[in-house]
Amino acid sequence: MRTVAVVGTGLIGTSAALALTGRGITVYLSDADPDAARTAASLGAGTTEEPTEPVDLAIIAVPPALVGKVLADCQRHGLARCYTDVASVKSGPRTEVTTLGCDTEHYIGGHPMAGREQSGPLAARADLFEGRPWVLTPTPDTDTETLNAALELVALCGAMPVVMDAAAHDRAVALVSHTPQLLSSLVAARLEHADETAVRLAGQGVRDVTRIAASDPRMWLDILSANAGVVADILEELAADLGTTVAALRAMETGDEAVRRAGSADIEAVIRRGNHGQARIPGKHGAPPTRYETVAVAIGDQPGELSRLFREAARAGVNIEDVAIDHSTGQRVGLVQLQVEPSAVRRLVEALGERGWDVRD
């Protein structure tokens, strides 16, 4: 692959362009908003000049509802030899592509499972897709050249290809992406008019749950409208669980001991189900989930402290598997939670203690 056209220079399109230009690919950028394309070009994502001949691959990086129309237009003008898209919903675009009479031999649906709560070209990163799944949804019409071009794109972006049926993909992302976005927004919406004192008590738990609630509403409206039925099905199941949970909590308020015990059992059951579901989420590098231990260290909020802590862990021969920082409200101190292998906990605690770090139990 030598040349690529990216049509749509938002977060995903520009991130793919940055990854490709970093690999020496010539990338041609276009967008319905010329300013967005120029911004992406200024970041080093490619050029806004038009290609003089068909490129090897065109990436259609537009909302799901526009994929068919944009693909038809690109094919009509002979933009590329092969085409793919990066829309987060696959069944609807595929139906429209067929309805519009597009060339389906040289088109393959795609969806990189990566993103950020920010949007637009300025939020783009060349490493956005590294180690992330990139779903491809070929059909019996898809020719080998097009599949190979899409696989090369995935490899150049550092992602991992996953081949799926379009409908199965939409059900999967409704569960692991679209529904969590709505739930995060619903929890965050409780904070909109909450008392300031309550909001100031927010810790890492509510930060984790509401992080993606900062996402662009317009972008998510495009996504959800293309997968509304499947997401609604999952929300109905959640609503049933929520109703049971509310009833159990009300039961725990009563004076009847048997009723309270029944309510407690229902709450424990839903939390245990959550334990089991969370344990199924793949661990690092897609491996089976691993149970790490937490070593909590208090650090000052000043430059260099975090890097110094990591260097101390490296000197002790301990690999940091994951990290989270819980910031203290109104104080210039934070609690760094280092996730490490259980066998490394004692070694790390002793090494940090010897170097004067404030290791918390």
UniProtKB/TrEMBL annotation:
Biological or metabolic pathway of the protein: Amino-acid biosynthesis; L-tyrosine biosynthesis; (4-hydroxyphenyl)pyruvate from prephenate (NAD(+) route): step 1/1
Catalytic activity as recorded in UniProt: prephenate + NAD(+) = 3-(4-hydroxyphenyl)pyruvate + CO2 + NADH
Keywords: Amino-acid biosynthesis, Aromatic amino acid biosynthesis, NAD, Oxidoreductase, Tyrosine biosynthesis
One Pfam family it belongs to: PDH_C
GO MF annotation: an example: prephenate dehydrogenase (NADP+) activity
Classification via SUPFAM superfamilies: 6-phosphogluconate dehydrogenase C-terminal domain-like, ACT-like, NAD(P)-binding Rossmann-fold domains
Residues in Prephenate/arogenate dehydrogenase domain copies: 2-278
Residue span(s) of domain ACT: 294-361
Gene3D superfamilies: 6-phosphogluconate dehydrogenase C-terminal like domain, NAD(P)-binding Rossmann-like Domain
Name of this chain's protein: Prephenate dehydrogenase
Species per Swiss-Prot/TrEMBL record: Kitasatospora kifunensis
